[in-house]
Amino acid sequence: MPTPTQTPTPIQPKAAGEAGRESHREPPYFVTYDHSLEARHEFEFEVLSTIGVPRNNESVYAAPWVELEFGVTSLWTTEVYFEGVTTTSDGSGFTGWRWENRFRPLKKEHRVNPLLYFEYEHVNEASRIQKEIVGSGPIDFAPIADLKSEWQHEIETKLILSGRVHSWNVSGNFTLEKNLTTDEGIEFGYAAGIAPLSAAEGGPNCRLCGSRVYPAFEIYGGLGTSKEFGAKDARHYIAPIVAWQVTPKSTIKASVGFGLTHASDHVLFRIAWGRELF
User: What is the DSSP letter of 139?
Assistant: First the structure.
């Protein structure tokens, strides 16, 4: 008897989320924000640190912080930060906490994707994580014991513009920060970054392939205040970044920020490890 012809099993297309994870990834910026948000009810934990090498023989410092990030909806991500500082000779201390919110007004992907950012900060003068840089002049290098007693309430907003150019993400941020404790006017800052979106080819067991290790680049600094606008006397940094996707849910990234002005530190080293918990 003739053998019936077997119908081949159709290949099922991957879900949109799975395909997106394979071909695209969140840019590994430290200061610049792109239009990525956490998925609804997704929770991520991240540990980071800024290590500064100042000019004029000031003490080297490390400013660690922890981020807890949660996707409230697909268009709203909220984060809480807790930060501290330690120095080689000027002391250590807890420097405060921040509550950040990012909102995406447009659901679909566009050539340019805007995000609105709002953050409340309860930090003291010893804060040195430099998650953003605004205003002008260097950071304060007085002893930490003196600085950590001076607490401030601050409001920060950003306009985030981000889009895809071929296989690259290009993002730009404009920051406004207002100190509610003292009258310093409104401080301004900027950040911009570029990073690859598409993963290079590599086998699933190749941990050091282009699909796992990839570069990025950002530049950021201050733009003065509403009382004296301008970038001349502000801190500015240019920073190459490298990221390693250790597992599908965890990433290590590091950057070296080179100071471009006399107000800047010589170098800002940054390192981070993050993991999606659920």
Answer: P
